[in-house]
Each structure stands twice: as C-alpha cells, then as structure tokens.
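Exercise 7b. Backbone tokens:
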C-alpha cells in the first residue's frame, strides 16, 4: 500500500513553533515528532511505500526521515516549488502512484485505521473517500433569525454539530484526470467538481481519537494528552 503525506505548508497558525521547524516536525510529548508518529502508524498498518510532498523547510523533513528504512518503508519525495493547494501536489506525482492510494496531511494525530480507509475506498468504487469526524461548534453570541426587518426567532449561544474532514483520504488515480499538473488544486475544488458531476465522494465516519495539530488549541491538547494516549496511538508500531 502507498501513502502520500502532504507536508509542504508553512504552518502559519502554529507560529512561532514553525519559524524554524516545518509543522510535521513539531514535537509531541518529549520524544516524538508528529511525522514520526504518522510514519510508524502507517508502517504498522501495512503501508510499504510513502511519498512526502515537501515545500517550506522541506530539506529538514528530508534529513529527518531519510529513505524511511528505520520504519520499514520506502520513502521518496516530491518538492513543491510554489503552493499548489491540498491536491495540487498529487498531479505532478500521478505517474508514480498506484491505482488507489492514501492521502493525508502531515499534522494529523489519530488512531484511525489507515489501511481500513484505503480498503473501504477500494470497495466503494467512489472517486474519493473522506475520513470524517463529528465536531461541535459553540457560537458565543445570541443568534437571531430575521425576516422583513423583524426578529422572528432567537437562540442564545447555540451549539451546532458538523461532520468535518479529518485530512485523510482514499483516492483513485483516475480522479485526477483532467486537471493540469503544476496548477493549484484544492480539496474544496475537487469535492465541488465531483458533486457537480454527480460523482460524490464516499464518507468514512470515524469516532475515535483525532486532533488537527495545525490548530494551536489542538496542539496544546495533544501534548497534554500524549503520555496517557501513547499506547493507543502507537499500538503495534
């Protein structure tokens, strides 16, 4: 199985941590970088190949990971000379990728079964599979509903439930057909194109542990919780 890790972002939301370190190498706990945890998880799940798309401070990632042998994987790299969005780097890699593969952000901390995501993607026949997670969003204001300059309803500081993308996807190579290598392609653009063409993505709903380390609050939480959750996150790794 082949995974592509997207690790080319500047990590603006995590500054000043990412001033000298690329976001996937920020430390979690006392011993591990987030990218190391991801690679150990992928290896334990049976992935033998990994391509890391690098950009900002990418040479530091290359020096840290090397050829992947320490995790029992073969790792190669794709350099992003200019920002290409979430899916854009894959267009330049298309000829190096198998028919189906896993794509994920390099700043995800989760106990998601990556192999099962790819397996379910293959079974679904969908062009794209999106791992999803339930998030509750708290609105810190009283919410008004208006009509014809009149307030017709009011809710005080409501909570709203959404399913959000976890930044982990199963993808079929043919889904990239028709897009131009070297041009930016965002995850949002790809999903909207698939919906417009009535070729919807498959949802892989997950209710385990997941944090987006690109968010400062989640990064702080990850460090606070890692010791107690280490056996869960690195089981079998």
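Sequence design result:
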């Amino acid at each position: 199985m082949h995974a592509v890790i997207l690790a080319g972002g500047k990590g603006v939301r995590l500054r000043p941590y990412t001033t000298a370190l690329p976001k996937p190498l920020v430390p979690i706990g006392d011993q591990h970088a987030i990218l190391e945890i991801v690679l150990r998880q992928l290896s334990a799940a049976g992935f033998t190949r990994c391509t890391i798309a690098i950009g900002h401070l990418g040479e530091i990632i290359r020096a840290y990971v090397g050829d992947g042998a320490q995790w029992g994987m073969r790792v190669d790299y794709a350099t992003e000379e200019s920002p290409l969005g979430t899916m854009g780097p894959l267009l330049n890699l298309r000829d190096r990728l198998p028919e189906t593969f896993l794509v994920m952000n390099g700043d995800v901390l989760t106990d998601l079964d990556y192999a099962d995501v790819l397996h379910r993607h293959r079974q679904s026949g969908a062009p794209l599979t999106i791992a999803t997670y339930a998030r509750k969003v708290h609105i810190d204001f009283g919410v008004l509903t208006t009509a014809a300059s009149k307030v017709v309803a009011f809710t005080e500081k409501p909570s709203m439930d959404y399913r959000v993308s976890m930044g982990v996807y199963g993808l079929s190579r043919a889904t990239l057909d028709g897009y131009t290598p070297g041009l930016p392609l965002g995850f949002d653009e790809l999903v909207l194109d698939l919906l417009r063409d009535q070729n919807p993505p498959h949802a892989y709903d997950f209710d385990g542990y997941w944090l987006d380390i690109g968010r400062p609050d989640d990064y702080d939480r990850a460090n606070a919780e890692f010791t107690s959750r280490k056996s869960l996150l690195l089981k079998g790794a």
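Instructor comment: The longest helix spans residues 216-233. The helical segments are 34-44, 58-65, 88-93, 114-124, 187-196, 216-233.
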